[in-house]
Fold this protein.
Amino acid sequence: MSSGLQRRRVGGGSNDEDDSAQSSITNGGNSRSSTTDPSPQPSYHAGGSAFEFSGGNRIAYDPRDLQDAAGEEAKGYLSFWNDNISYALRGCILIELALRKRIALVKDPNRRQVAPAERLVEVISDRQTGETLLDEALKLMRSQQDVERFSVNTWIDLMSGETWNVMKIGFQLKQVRERLLKGLVDKGVLRTEKRNFLLFDMATHPVSDMRVKESIITRAVSLLTSTTSAIPPSALDKEGIQCRVIRAVSLVCSAYCASVLDNAFDRLGFEEREAAFGRCEEILNEFIVWPFGGSSSTPFSPGGASSRPRRQQTSRIGMGSVGEVSGRESVLGLIQEAKKEAKDGDEDLSFELIAGVLEVLSKMDSLL
């Protein structure tokens, strides 16, 4: 694990210039990162118009701005305090390139001696995808391949700007969120508005076409609440899309790791909500190893999935545990269907790369 990634997963700050963007299709939630911030804590004075810090300094604000900001999530905005999204987006770029068979892991018999996240990546086809961000990432990886091959973990770090090496700053993909948002505006999914947030006027992108948002939420909820081994059709993308099962898995796992899955479960009751989070964690455990579903036997996860720290476990205990997660048959059915999509079975190096990406994303909130 690189030092840059460790800093990002532990700290709450960000050095990525696109991390100030604050909107997406899916509603955001507060980050689940557990941190110890030594900075002075603010205290609010009722009836006043300032936050007072322990050092005696005050920051002026309009109380109406805080009320407006609190209600933004319900309108489709995403809090820019969430520091996980930009990092997860870089992982999703690698997943999409792998699904399109542009990149894969290096076929080396010794690669099994390290975790999937630490295995080397290579470009197997430099054919353009037609998507600007994907082609830009592919070009970066292809240009570096003849010099040095990097691991899955390292590529996500570099694309996020997480490096102390000034010679590798050029590998950062800049303004990813803003460029994605503008693309969605062009497609009519979002719209652009100017909003006053505290002391600044910022461009925001609330949802314009609610049908797209509802479709994504329905897919996630259907997958995580299914009680049968058969995958419900509503959990999958439309017919004709390749690798629909692994795309559905990547959707819920990356959303969960990026802390934007919470509001998708507003329609569920308490018990169903906790069970859905538990199901998502279980799915993530099974898909961060290779072959998929080998969490109980992999040497990189001693003792199986139960030994991995569960980000939701603490909150469940605090609010009242809901007992063992049901639906194991559904998870096993998901694993079987995902394996069918791998063209070369356990030797599909592109799918193996996806396991490495999900492993990196699963550790964003780990205490180091």
Summary: The radius of gyration is 21 Å.
